[in-house]
Amino acid sequence: MGMSAEDERAASPRDEEWPEAEKAEKLARGAALKWASGVFYRPEKLEGLGHYRRRETQRNSSIQSRLKSTVQSYLEGVSTGLEQLRSAAQEVQSVCQDLGAARWALLDSADHFQGLQQMRELMEEHVQLASVVQVLPQIFSVHEVFSHILQLLHGQHLLEAHVELMMVEQLRDDILSQLHLRGLSSAQATVLSYFSGLQELNESLAKQLWDIVGSSLQLVREDPVLFVTAVRIIEREEKIDDTLLLEATFLPPGRPKGWRQKFYQVLQDTITGAHFHAPRMDAEGPGLARHLAALQKDIVSELCVVKDLMVQCVPAHYNILSVCTATYHQALTSHLQEILQEDLDKQGLFLILEWALRVYHSPEMMGHPDLLPEVDVSALGPLMSSELVDQTERRYVMKVKASVFEWMQRTLEVEFKEWFREEEPETDHQGFFQSALPAIVMQMLNENIQVASLITDSLQQKIYNMALEELEAFLGRLREALVQCGKEHQQDRAVPKYYISYLLAVLNNNLALSNSVSSLHSNTACREVPTSLQAALDRMQKKATQLLLEELLLDLQPLCLQLPSRKWLSGSQLVGSMCEVIDKYAKDFSRVRKPVCTLLLAETELLVASQYLRALLQRKMVCKSREERGQLCQRLLQDATQLRELFRGLGLDRSQQSLEAVFALRELISLKDPALLSLEVVGFITKYPDVSDEHISTLLDIRGDVSKEVRHVVLEMMAQHPQVLPEGYRPIFSTILVPVPELPFCLRKGKCA
């Protein structure tokens, strides 16, 4: 199994030369040892050693035979390759020799090639001259062709004329192209001069074409042949333009003609000129309405012609219907802007807004069944921008505002004159006084709001806001007129004759206006009356109520001047006379609708109570005895009861009356023990917190039996119980001023008497 020393020495040089072989041999030996140890690990297995040796010997012989065969095949291939390389080297050497010989042959023939170049140039010149000779008859006949083309144009044989014109242009362009390629620019001017008639013919043909295009809408209805001919000629010229632009070597004069673009321009100019460059129309209502109606009719009619007829006369890529639709749309946009630069009245502004925002897109115009679905202006944008619409709406609102102000002013003047009529105001079916003012004002405002709602919600809202502002201003002017009427009445109570009746009519009118304001807006969510307008309505109602109460006060004052007096105390019919006056006014108040009627009664009752208390406190009567004090209390009870029952009979509940203060005051006067006054006064000021110290002092004076000590205690008690007016309290004593008691004059270091 081991290697001998000689084998190792023999293998050493080889191993140094082939280290991979040494590694492979070691691996093989290791594998063999591993295999042998696995097979012969038992002694009895050594019996089969001979068998294994023979098998491995046969195997090695087979491997060696295959190796020898492979090496032999490889050596034969190497031999064949070397032979082929040797043959290739010989062939390359032969080719190099042949190339060298060809090079020397070419060098010897260089002089002969120069002669061939001259022959080539002569040949090219001959070809050119032959071409010139061929076109000479055409060149000489150019002017004759010009005359013939002109005749054809005069006879409107446009297709034939254009064919000959193209032939002449082609001839000229070919000649110019050759001159351009040879750099003979100086000769081009001569050629252009010779063919100068082409420019005139082109212009003549173009003029006829544009005249035809300008009349296209009429021609396609009557005789579309001419229009179709014009389109065919334009398309021929477009193809020639495209071809020349693609070649990009030489561009003849007058190219590209761009006749298709000119076709669109002429068509657009025709549409614009026919409808939108008319003389300035009347900016006042009817003239503008007729103009817009004519535009609407003509545009729909012409678009129908384009859709049904013209589309069939032009190639599909012209998109003629879309072009015409866009032209009308853009022209209308500019035209409306021009119209809006005029000083239009409100009717004109409304017509513009209605036409642009409603009519234009409606089935009456661009949404006409005959135009759908091919015509679609939704992608073209609005006729009026949102900024222009808002600006126009504001102008319209200002015009309407001026008109509303004028109408309201006239209505106010008529109303003011009616107040001085020699007859009572008119009444409704229930007998309530009224005038036509609320109906006129609300109808005017409502009509303007309803008209605006036909356009846009934004315009409706603008008019609605304007209407409320104008109504508020109108109420202010109406109030001023009412004040003026009151001043004239103060100078002469006989003027106006039916002063009270018209004041009552004003209250009914004010109530009608207040009830009608919320119905101005169609949207229930937007019907809330603004605070400022409600305040104006309240001020108007208060002023009319104030004038009525002043009139009532003038009739009551002569009676109140008799309070208090000994005659009154002894039992006169003074309060009965007051009740008659009040009852007379109450009958007048019944001509006013609720709740204003109830308010008038409540204000009247408050006025009567305050005047009664004022007379009692300002012209105080000091009771000289208990009997006189009892007599005063009895009179107060009778008067207050009579007045209370009167107002209760008129529909004013006891809880709503201020006359209860008279009953409370009577209780203070009728109290038998003055020492208890402090407690009673505290209860009194709690119920009537607007009572002052002066009021209480006056009441104590009226009793006539209150000592200084009791007075001091009462006033101290009041100081200890300051009162705050509760919310909703109706003051009664705060409006009554009583004279301040004079302080007694005191000597220094002395006691007051």
TrEMBL record:
InterPro entries: EXOC3/Sec6, EXOC3/Sec6_C. One of its GO terms (cellular component) is transport vesicle. The keyword GTP-binding does not apply. Keywords: Cytoplasmic vesicle, Exocytosis. One of its GO terms (biological process) is exocytosis. One of its GO terms (molecular function) is SNARE binding. It is found in: Cytoplasmic vesicle, Secretory vesicle. It holds the Pfam family Sec6. Belongs to the SEC6 family. As part of the exocyst, may play a role in regulated exocytosis of insulin granules. Interacts with EXOC2, EXOC4 and EXOC5; may be part of the exocyst. This is Exocyst complex component 3-like protein. It comes from Corvus moneduloides. The lineage of its organism: Eukaryota, Metazoa, Chordata, Craniata, Vertebrata. The gene is EXOC3L1.
